[in-house]
Prior knowledge:
Layout: E1 3-9, H1 13-24, E2 29-33, H2 58-71, E3 75-78, E4 82-86, E5 92-96, E6 100-109, E7 113-115, E8 131-132, H3 135-138, E9 146-150, H4 154-163, E10 169-173, H5 183-190, E11 195-198, E12 201-208, E13 212-219, E14 225-229, E15 232-235, E16 239-241, E17 271-273, H6 285-317
Parallel strand pairs: 1-2, 1-6, 2-3, 6-17, 8-15, 9-10, 9-15, 10-11
Antiparallel strand pairs: 4-5, 5-6, 7-16, 12-13, 13-14
Amino acid sequence: MNHYDAIIIGAGAAGLTAGIYLSRAKVKTLILNEGTVGGQMVLTHEIANYPGIESISGYELARNMKLQAQKFGAVIKSNIKITSFDLKSNPKRFIVNGKDEYTSDVVIITTGGRSRTLGVPGENEFKGKGISYCATCDGDFFQDKEIIVVGGGNSALEEAVSLTKYASKVTIVHQFDHFQAFEHYVNEAKNNPKIDFIMESKIVEFIGDEKLRKVKIQNQRNGEVLEKDIDGVFIFIGYVPNTEMFEDVLELNQFKEIVVDKNMATNIEGVYAAGDSIAKRYRQVTTAVGEGTVAALSAAEYLNKFEKAEQVAEESVV
């Protein structure tokens, strides 16, 4: 009862897409997800560059993908804990919550990533008490407040603009003298009257009592430290791939990202990977969807060959 043709680890954009493709192809599919279904998508206030959809929240897009996968027959188990696994066995095995065993002939890993932290004094203390990594989740808590956004990539600038719907003022703090974001996001932020910039600087300490009250910002050029009163800080400096569990199993690069080929295949036969846990340059919902599609099609092809090989083996025994 607990054997599936395919098991997908992770239910973000890549995992749900793979689940849609496989289950629609009548492949018995199980998606195991340790967190909330949707992954990084649910942290995005607005997705306005998804082909065919003018504008949609990340939460809503994740919900639609989940329902679509389930409609085609995929089984989704979320908020679980994978306590052990064996990717090299035949079939491949996973133990969930220390007791439930699930097996499959093929595996797709789509574990995504998590928000990168600054790692400075006070950050852990004031998480959820003025420090946030999710504009969608916490933006409305800062209505008519002054906030800081840390970062210089697409997410930082895009979310800074979205936060102006709530905050009276947004200050972007970035460690370099230029941004790494697309020109559209840079111009949108620069043209917003509510947004100011502190460049070539970084936050070195968070200060407060029961909640965040102020930050210390150090200039990278002269070392001078500015102490600034603030109501909240949103940190968007990228994220770390969730690949710790695979460190001694799969081939990872120096950034701990899973190394895959053009078919999304890993170094273990029958194991594929897609989404923000793999080595790649661009991290967007659309790229994750594309990778999830390739991984699913590759996995389906592998299953067809696998079944034919088993059939030949059985016939030779007979």
